[in-house]
Protein backbone atom coordinates (compact mmCIF):
# COMPACT_ATOMS: atom_id res chain seq x y z
CA UNK A 1 0.00 0.00 0.00
CA UNK A 2 2.95 2.34 0.39
CA UNK A 3 3.99 2.37 -3.26
CA UNK A 4 1.44 4.74 -4.77
CA UNK A 5 -2.20 5.40 -5.53
CA UNK A 6 -4.59 3.04 -7.23
CA UNK A 7 -4.17 4.90 -10.51
CA UNK A 8 -0.36 4.97 -10.34
CA UNK A 9 0.17 8.48 -8.98
CA UNK A 10 2.47 9.01 -6.02
CA UNK A 11 1.05 8.84 -2.51
CA UNK A 12 2.17 10.92 0.44
CA UNK A 13 3.10 9.04 3.64
CA UNK A 14 0.25 8.75 6.11
CA UNK A 15 0.57 11.42 8.79
CA UNK A 16 -0.91 9.06 11.38
CA UNK A 17 1.82 6.46 10.94
CA UNK A 18 4.32 8.07 13.26
CA UNK A 19 5.46 4.64 14.43
CA UNK A 20 6.65 3.59 10.99
CA UNK A 21 3.97 1.07 10.17
CA UNK A 22 0.52 1.24 8.68
CA UNK A 23 -1.46 -0.02 11.64
CA UNK A 24 -5.15 -0.85 11.49
CA UNK A 25 -6.11 2.32 13.36
CA UNK A 26 -5.29 4.57 10.40
CA UNK A 27 -6.30 2.23 7.58
CA UNK A 28 -9.52 4.06 6.79
CA UNK A 29 -7.75 7.42 6.77
CA UNK A 30 -5.04 6.07 4.49
CA UNK A 31 -7.48 4.65 1.98
CA UNK A 32 -9.67 7.75 1.95
CA UNK A 33 -7.15 10.58 2.02
CA UNK A 34 -3.61 9.51 1.25
CA UNK A 35 -4.29 8.95 -2.43
CA UNK A 36 -4.25 12.68 -3.33
CA UNK A 37 -7.51 13.24 -1.40
CA UNK A 38 -9.48 11.04 -3.80
CA UNK A 39 -11.95 8.77 -1.96
CA UNK A 40 -11.04 5.21 -2.85
CA UNK A 41 -12.81 3.35 -0.04
CA UNK A 42 -15.45 1.05 -1.48
CA UNK A 43 -17.71 -1.73 -0.16
CA UNK A 44 -15.45 -4.23 -1.91
CA UNK A 45 -12.50 -3.43 0.33
CA UNK A 46 -11.18 -6.66 1.85
CA UNK A 47 -11.37 -4.99 5.25
CA UNK A 48 -15.12 -4.55 4.86
CA UNK A 49 -15.45 -8.17 3.76
CA UNK A 50 -13.46 -9.50 6.71
CA UNK A 51 -15.24 -11.90 9.02
CA UNK A 52 -17.66 -9.96 11.23
CA UNK A 53 -17.60 -9.99 14.99
CA UNK A 54 -19.83 -12.61 16.59
CA UNK A 55 -23.14 -11.19 17.83
CA UNK A 56 -23.38 -9.76 21.32
CA UNK A 57 -25.40 -12.08 23.52
CA UNK A 58 -27.46 -10.95 26.52
CA UNK A 59 -26.94 -7.90 28.76
CA UNK A 60 -30.05 -6.29 27.31
CA UNK A 61 -30.85 -4.06 30.27
CA UNK A 62 -27.26 -2.82 30.39
CA UNK A 63 -27.41 -2.09 26.68
CA UNK A 64 -30.64 -0.14 27.14
CA UNK A 65 -29.10 1.96 29.90
CA UNK A 66 -26.00 2.67 27.83
CA UNK A 67 -28.10 3.59 24.80
CA UNK A 68 -30.20 6.01 26.87
CA UNK A 69 -27.01 7.68 28.11
CA UNK A 70 -25.66 7.97 24.56
CA UNK A 71 -28.92 9.55 23.35
CA UNK A 72 -29.05 11.96 26.29
CA UNK A 73 -25.39 12.91 25.96
CA UNK A 74 -24.71 11.80 29.54
CA UNK A 75 -22.46 8.81 28.87
CA UNK A 76 -19.32 9.13 31.08
CA UNK A 77 -16.07 9.42 29.16
CA UNK A 78 -14.42 6.64 31.16
CA UNK A 79 -16.23 3.35 31.86
CA UNK A 80 -15.11 0.21 33.69
CA UNK A 81 -16.86 -2.97 32.56
CA UNK A 82 -16.55 -5.73 35.15
CA UNK A 83 -17.87 -9.27 35.32
CA UNK A 84 -16.95 -12.93 35.08
CA UNK A 85 -14.51 -14.17 32.48
CA UNK A 86 -16.02 -14.82 29.07
CA UNK A 87 -19.40 -13.10 29.49
CA UNK A 88 -18.72 -10.52 26.76
CA UNK A 89 -17.18 -7.46 28.44
CA UNK A 90 -14.94 -6.57 25.49
CA UNK A 91 -17.66 -7.55 23.04
CA UNK A 92 -20.03 -5.14 24.80
CA UNK A 93 -17.34 -2.46 24.58
CA UNK A 94 -17.18 -3.03 20.82
CA UNK A 95 -20.99 -2.87 20.66
CA UNK A 96 -20.85 0.48 22.46
CA UNK A 97 -18.19 1.69 20.03
CA UNK A 98 -20.43 0.72 17.16
CA UNK A 99 -23.36 2.50 18.79
CA UNK A 100 -21.56 5.84 19.30
CA UNK A 101 -19.95 5.71 15.85
CA UNK A 102 -23.10 4.57 13.99
CA UNK A 103 -24.17 7.07 11.35
CA UNK A 104 -27.91 6.55 11.91
CA UNK A 105 -28.32 6.60 15.69
CA UNK A 106 -30.83 4.60 17.68
CA UNK A 107 -30.99 2.19 20.59
CA UNK A 108 -28.89 -0.38 18.72
CA UNK A 109 -26.19 0.01 16.06
CA UNK A 110 -27.80 -0.23 12.64
CA UNK A 111 -25.17 -2.73 11.49
CA UNK A 112 -25.39 -1.60 7.87
CA UNK A 113 -23.83 1.88 7.70
CA UNK A 114 -20.19 2.29 6.78
CA UNK A 115 -19.13 2.99 10.37
CA UNK A 116 -20.90 -0.08 11.73
CA UNK A 117 -19.33 -2.31 9.09
CA UNK A 118 -15.87 -0.90 9.80
CA UNK A 119 -16.24 -1.60 13.52
CA UNK A 120 -17.40 -5.14 12.77
CA UNK A 121 -14.28 -5.62 10.67
CA UNK A 122 -12.08 -4.06 13.40
CA UNK A 123 -10.96 -1.52 10.82
CA UNK A 124 -12.56 1.76 11.95
CA UNK A 125 -9.94 4.50 12.10
CA UNK A 126 -11.38 5.92 15.33
CA UNK A 127 -11.61 2.61 17.18
CA UNK A 128 -8.51 1.62 19.15
CA UNK A 129 -8.56 -1.75 20.93
CA UNK A 130 -5.64 -2.43 23.28
CA UNK A 131 -5.15 -6.00 24.44
CA UNK A 132 -2.47 -7.50 26.71
CA UNK A 133 0.64 -8.64 24.83
CA UNK A 134 3.98 -10.06 25.85
CA UNK A 135 6.52 -7.58 27.14
CA UNK A 136 8.44 -6.03 24.20
CA UNK A 137 12.01 -7.22 23.73
CA UNK A 138 13.46 -4.05 22.23
CA UNK A 139 15.69 -1.92 24.43
CA UNK A 140 14.90 1.49 22.95
CA UNK A 141 11.64 3.07 24.18
CA UNK A 142 10.44 4.05 20.70
CA UNK A 143 11.26 0.61 19.37
CA UNK A 144 9.22 -0.90 22.22
CA UNK A 145 6.21 1.16 21.18
CA UNK A 146 6.63 0.02 17.58
CA UNK A 147 6.91 -3.59 18.70
CA UNK A 148 3.74 -3.37 20.81
CA UNK A 149 1.86 -1.66 17.96
CA UNK A 150 2.90 -4.40 15.54
CA UNK A 151 1.95 -7.12 18.00
CA UNK A 152 -1.48 -5.63 18.69
CA UNK A 153 -2.05 -5.19 14.95
CA UNK A 154 -1.22 -8.87 14.53
CA UNK A 155 -3.72 -9.80 17.23
CA UNK A 156 -6.42 -7.72 15.52
CA UNK A 157 -5.68 -9.40 12.20
CA UNK A 158 -5.99 -12.79 13.86
CA UNK A 159 -9.30 -11.79 15.42
CA UNK A 160 -10.60 -10.66 12.05
CA UNK A 161 -9.92 -14.18 10.81
CA UNK A 162 -11.03 -15.98 13.98
CA UNK A 163 -13.42 -13.78 15.96
CA UNK A 164 -13.97 -16.42 18.66
CA UNK A 165 -10.67 -15.80 20.41
CA UNK A 166 -9.48 -17.33 23.67
CA UNK A 167 -7.71 -15.72 26.63
CA UNK A 168 -4.30 -14.15 25.95
CA UNK A 169 -1.08 -15.68 27.18
CA UNK A 170 -0.84 -15.71 30.95
CA UNK A 171 2.22 -13.47 30.82
CA UNK A 172 0.69 -10.90 28.47
CA UNK A 173 0.45 -7.42 30.00
CA UNK A 174 -0.17 -3.74 29.32
CA UNK A 175 3.38 -2.47 29.69
CA UNK A 176 4.67 1.10 29.73
CA UNK A 177 5.16 0.75 25.97
CA UNK A 178 1.42 0.06 25.59
CA UNK A 179 0.60 3.13 27.66
CA UNK A 180 2.87 5.24 25.47
CA UNK A 181 1.10 3.87 22.41
CA UNK A 182 -2.23 4.89 23.99
CA UNK A 183 -0.85 8.39 24.56
CA UNK A 184 0.19 8.70 20.93
CA UNK A 185 -3.15 7.57 19.60
CA UNK A 186 -5.16 9.70 22.02
CA UNK A 187 -3.15 12.73 20.91
CA UNK A 188 -4.43 12.29 17.36
CA UNK A 189 -7.56 14.02 16.10
CA UNK A 190 -10.56 12.06 14.93
CA UNK A 191 -10.06 10.69 11.42
CA UNK A 192 -13.78 10.50 10.66
CA UNK A 193 -14.62 13.78 12.37
CA UNK A 194 -16.68 12.21 15.15
CA UNK A 195 -16.00 10.43 18.41
CA UNK A 196 -13.07 8.14 19.16
CA UNK A 197 -13.27 4.96 21.22
CA UNK A 198 -10.41 3.40 23.18
CA UNK A 199 -10.94 -0.08 24.62
CA UNK A 200 -8.45 -1.45 27.14
CA UNK A 201 -9.16 -5.15 27.55
CA UNK A 202 -8.16 -6.78 30.84
CA UNK A 203 -7.07 -3.50 32.37
CA UNK A 204 -5.99 -5.37 35.52
CA UNK A 205 -2.92 -6.44 33.54
CA UNK A 206 -1.60 -2.88 33.52
CA UNK A 207 1.85 -3.06 35.05
CA UNK A 208 2.39 0.17 37.02
CA UNK A 209 5.82 -0.41 38.54
CA UNK A 210 8.50 -1.29 36.05
CA UNK A 211 11.17 0.28 38.27
CA UNK A 212 9.04 3.44 38.23
CA UNK A 213 5.36 4.46 38.51
CA UNK A 214 5.51 5.95 35.02
CA UNK A 215 2.92 3.65 33.43
CA UNK A 216 0.39 4.21 36.20
CA UNK A 217 0.92 7.97 36.27
CA UNK A 218 0.59 8.22 32.49
CA UNK A 219 -2.61 6.17 32.54
CA UNK A 220 -4.06 8.27 35.35
CA UNK A 221 -3.40 11.45 33.39
CA UNK A 222 -5.23 10.01 30.38
CA UNK A 223 -8.22 9.15 32.56
CA UNK A 224 -8.21 12.42 34.49
CA UNK A 225 -8.12 14.51 31.34
CA UNK A 226 -9.43 12.37 28.49
CA UNK A 227 -9.37 14.07 25.09
CA UNK A 228 -12.54 15.81 24.00
CA UNK A 229 -14.82 13.38 22.20
CA UNK A 230 -12.94 10.32 23.42
CA UNK A 231 -14.69 7.36 25.06
CA UNK A 232 -12.45 5.07 27.13
CA UNK A 233 -13.72 1.63 28.14
CA UNK A 234 -11.68 -0.52 30.53
CA UNK A 235 -12.60 -4.14 31.20
CA UNK A 236 -11.67 -6.46 34.05
CA UNK A 237 -12.84 -9.58 35.81
CA UNK A 238 -12.88 -7.94 39.24
CA UNK A 239 -12.68 -4.18 39.90
CA UNK A 240 -10.44 -4.84 42.90
CA UNK A 241 -7.75 -5.99 40.48
CA UNK A 242 -7.55 -2.53 38.97
CA UNK A 243 -5.52 0.16 40.72
CA UNK A 244 -7.83 2.10 43.09
CA UNK A 245 -6.74 5.42 41.61
CA UNK A 246 -7.77 4.21 38.14
CA UNK A 247 -10.97 2.60 39.41
CA UNK A 248 -12.06 5.83 41.09
CA UNK A 249 -11.96 7.69 37.78
CA UNK A 250 -14.20 5.28 35.87
CA UNK A 251 -17.97 4.76 36.00
CA UNK A 252 -18.59 1.07 36.82
CA UNK A 253 -20.78 -1.14 34.66
CA UNK A 254 -21.30 -4.64 36.08
CA UNK A 255 -22.11 -7.52 33.73
CA UNK A 256 -23.69 -10.70 35.08
CA UNK A 257 -23.43 -14.23 33.80
CA UNK A 258 -25.52 -15.27 30.82
CA UNK A 259 -28.35 -17.77 31.02
CA UNK A 260 -27.74 -21.37 29.94
CA UNK A 261 -30.15 -20.83 27.05
CA UNK A 262 -28.12 -17.85 25.82
CA UNK A 263 -24.87 -19.83 25.98
CA UNK A 264 -26.52 -22.85 24.34
CA UNK A 265 -27.97 -20.77 21.50
CA UNK A 266 -24.61 -19.12 20.79
CA UNK A 267 -22.72 -22.41 20.69
CA UNK A 268 -25.34 -23.96 18.42
CA UNK A 269 -24.99 -21.18 15.85
CA UNK A 270 -21.42 -19.91 16.00
CA UNK A 271 -18.99 -22.79 16.45
CA UNK A 272 -16.98 -23.92 13.44
CA UNK A 273 -17.25 -26.76 12.68
CA UNK A 274 -20.67 -27.02 14.30
CA UNK A 275 -20.74 -28.81 17.62
CA UNK A 276 -23.15 -31.66 18.23
CA UNK A 277 -25.87 -31.47 20.86
CA UNK A 278 -24.01 -33.68 23.32
CA UNK A 279 -20.88 -31.53 23.23
CA UNK A 280 -22.91 -28.34 23.54
CA UNK A 281 -24.76 -29.62 26.61
CA UNK A 282 -21.51 -30.73 28.18
CA UNK A 283 -19.92 -27.30 27.67
CA UNK A 284 -23.04 -25.43 28.84
CA UNK A 285 -23.02 -27.41 32.08
CA UNK A 286 -19.38 -26.42 32.71
CA UNK A 287 -19.63 -22.84 31.45
CA UNK A 288 -21.57 -21.31 34.38
CA UNK A 289 -23.05 -18.65 32.11
CA UNK A 290 -19.82 -17.83 30.27
CA UNK A 291 -19.47 -18.25 26.51
CA UNK A 292 -15.72 -17.79 26.85
CA UNK A 293 -15.54 -20.61 29.40
CA UNK A 294 -17.65 -22.84 27.17
CA UNK A 295 -15.28 -22.28 24.25
CA UNK A 296 -12.08 -22.83 26.24
CA UNK A 297 -13.14 -25.52 28.71
CA UNK A 298 -11.15 -28.71 28.31
CA UNK A 299 -8.10 -26.87 26.95
CA UNK A 300 -5.62 -24.71 28.87
CA UNK A 301 -8.35 -23.19 31.04
CA UNK A 302 -9.31 -26.58 32.43
CA UNK A 303 -5.68 -27.29 33.30
CA UNK A 304 -5.36 -23.95 35.09
CA UNK A 305 -8.43 -24.58 37.23
CA UNK A 306 -7.26 -28.07 38.16
CA UNK A 307 -3.89 -26.67 39.22
CA UNK A 308 -5.62 -23.99 41.29
CA UNK A 309 -7.78 -26.57 43.06
CA UNK A 310 -4.72 -28.71 43.78
CA UNK A 311 -2.91 -25.76 45.35
CA UNK A 312 -5.90 -24.83 47.51
CA UNK A 313 -6.28 -28.42 48.62
CA UNK A 314 -2.58 -28.44 49.57
CA UNK A 315 -2.94 -25.16 51.48
CA UNK A 316 -5.89 -26.51 53.44
CA UNK A 317 -3.99 -29.73 54.15
CA UNK A 318 -1.07 -27.88 55.70
CA UNK A 319 1.99 -25.76 54.99
CA UNK A 320 4.15 -28.78 54.21
CA UNK A 321 1.82 -29.86 51.44
CA UNK A 322 1.68 -26.30 50.10
CA UNK A 323 5.48 -26.08 50.02
CA UNK A 324 5.68 -29.43 48.24
CA UNK A 325 3.20 -28.14 45.67
CA UNK A 326 5.30 -25.00 45.19
CA UNK A 327 8.47 -26.99 44.62
CA UNK A 328 6.66 -28.95 41.94
CA UNK A 329 5.88 -25.78 40.01
CA UNK A 330 7.76 -25.60 36.73
CA UNK A 331 10.14 -22.67 36.39
CA UNK A 332 10.39 -20.00 33.72
CA UNK A 333 9.55 -22.27 30.78
CA UNK A 334 5.89 -22.35 31.91
CA UNK A 335 5.39 -18.80 33.19
CA UNK A 336 2.28 -18.30 31.07
CA UNK A 337 0.70 -21.42 32.55
CA UNK A 338 1.65 -20.21 36.02
CA UNK A 339 -0.05 -16.84 35.51
CA UNK A 340 -3.16 -18.56 34.12
CA UNK A 341 -3.24 -20.74 37.25
CA UNK A 342 -3.17 -17.63 39.44
CA UNK A 343 -6.13 -16.19 37.53
CA UNK A 344 -8.01 -19.47 38.00
CA UNK A 345 -7.07 -19.44 41.68
CA UNK A 346 -8.61 -16.01 42.16
CA UNK A 347 -11.85 -17.07 40.47
CA UNK A 348 -12.04 -20.30 42.50
CA UNK A 349 -11.68 -18.30 45.72
CA UNK A 350 -14.40 -15.97 44.45
CA UNK A 351 -16.71 -18.93 43.91
CA UNK A 352 -15.99 -20.15 47.44
CA UNK A 353 -16.87 -16.67 48.75
CA UNK A 354 -20.21 -16.91 46.95
CA UNK A 355 -20.80 -20.25 48.61
CA UNK A 356 -20.26 -18.81 52.10
CA UNK A 357 -23.04 -16.32 51.37
CA UNK A 358 -25.50 -19.03 50.43
CA UNK A 359 -25.22 -18.52 46.70
CA UNK A 360 -24.78 -21.44 44.30
CA UNK A 361 -21.17 -22.42 43.58
CA UNK A 362 -20.66 -22.71 39.85
CA UNK A 363 -17.25 -24.37 39.83
CA UNK A 364 -15.58 -27.14 41.75
CA UNK A 365 -14.27 -25.74 45.05
CA UNK A 366 -12.35 -27.64 47.76
CA UNK A 367 -14.98 -28.40 50.41
CA UNK A 368 -12.96 -27.04 53.39
CA UNK A 369 -13.10 -23.55 51.86
CA UNK A 370 -16.87 -23.52 52.34
CA UNK A 371 -16.59 -23.94 56.11
CA UNK A 372 -16.06 -20.21 56.58
CA UNK A 373 -19.09 -18.40 57.98
CA UNK A 374 -18.35 -15.22 56.05
CA UNK A 375 -16.52 -14.39 52.82
CA UNK A 376 -13.95 -12.25 54.66
CA UNK A 377 -11.06 -14.77 54.77
CA UNK A 378 -11.63 -15.72 51.14
CA UNK A 379 -11.58 -12.07 50.05
CA UNK A 380 -8.29 -11.61 51.90
CA UNK A 381 -6.97 -14.66 50.08
CA UNK A 382 -8.01 -13.10 46.76
CA UNK A 383 -6.00 -10.00 47.63
CA UNK A 384 -2.94 -12.19 48.28
CA UNK A 385 -3.43 -13.84 44.89
CA UNK A 386 -3.76 -10.43 43.21
CA UNK A 387 -0.43 -9.37 44.73
CA UNK A 388 1.18 -12.58 43.48
CA UNK A 389 -0.34 -12.05 40.02
CA UNK A 390 1.21 -8.60 39.87
CA UNK A 391 4.58 -9.96 40.97
CA UNK A 392 4.34 -12.74 38.38
CA UNK A 393 4.63 -10.12 35.63
CA UNK A 394 8.14 -9.39 36.81
CA UNK A 395 11.29 -11.48 36.81
CA UNK A 396 10.29 -13.68 39.76
CA UNK A 397 10.82 -17.42 40.03
CA UNK A 398 7.36 -19.08 40.06
CA UNK A 399 8.49 -21.63 42.64
CA UNK A 400 9.56 -18.95 45.10
CA UNK A 401 6.45 -16.88 44.44
CA UNK A 402 4.17 -19.87 44.91
CA UNK A 403 5.90 -20.87 48.15
CA UNK A 404 5.33 -17.37 49.55
CA UNK A 405 1.73 -17.35 48.31
CA UNK A 406 1.11 -20.72 49.93
CA UNK A 407 2.29 -19.32 53.28
CA UNK A 408 0.10 -16.24 52.86
CA UNK A 409 -2.98 -18.28 51.96
CA UNK A 410 -2.43 -20.63 54.89
CA UNK A 411 -2.45 -17.63 57.25
CA UNK A 412 -5.76 -16.20 56.03
CA UNK A 413 -7.60 -19.43 55.27
Provide an overview of this structure.
The protein is an alpha/beta fold and about 425 residues long. The chain folds into 3 domains: about 50-255, 3-Layer(aba) Sandwich (Rossmann fold), CATH 3.40.50; about 260-295; about 300-410, Up-down Bundle (Zinc Finger, Delta Prime, domain 3). It has 16 helices and 5 strands. The chain has helices spanning about 25-35, 60-70, 90-100, 115-120, 140-160, 175-185, 215-225, 245, 260-270, 275-285, 290-295, 300-315, 320-325, 335-355, 375-390, 400-410; strands at about 80, 125-130, 195-200, 230-235, 250-255. It has a 5-stranded parallel beta sheet with strand order 2-3-4-1-5, sandwiched between helices. Strand 3, helix 7 (about 215-225) and strand 4 form a beta-alpha-beta unit. Helix 9 crosses helix 10 (about 275-285). The longest helix has 22 residues, at about 335-355. The radius of gyration is 22 Å and the shape is globular. The model is unreliable at about 1-50 (pLDDT under 50).
- Biggest sheet descriptor: 5 strands, parallel
Sketch the topology as an H/E string, one letter per element.
Answer: HHEHHEHHEHEHEHHHHHHHH
Strand content: 5-15%
List low-pLDDT spans. Answer: 1-50
Number of strands: 5
Oligomer: single chain
Level-2 CATH architecture of the largest domain: 3-Layer(aba) Sandwich
Amino acid sequence: MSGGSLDGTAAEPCALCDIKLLHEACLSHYLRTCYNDRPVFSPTSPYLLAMSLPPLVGHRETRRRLARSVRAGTLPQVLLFTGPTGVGKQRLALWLAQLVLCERGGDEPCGTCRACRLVEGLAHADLHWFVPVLRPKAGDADKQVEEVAETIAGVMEERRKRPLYTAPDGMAIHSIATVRLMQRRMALTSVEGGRRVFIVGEADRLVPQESSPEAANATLKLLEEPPVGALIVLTTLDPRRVLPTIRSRAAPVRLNRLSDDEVRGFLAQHTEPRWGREKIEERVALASGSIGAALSEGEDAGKAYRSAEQLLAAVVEGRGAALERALGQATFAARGDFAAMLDALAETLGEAARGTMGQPVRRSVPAPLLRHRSPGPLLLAMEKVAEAREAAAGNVNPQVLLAVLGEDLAEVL
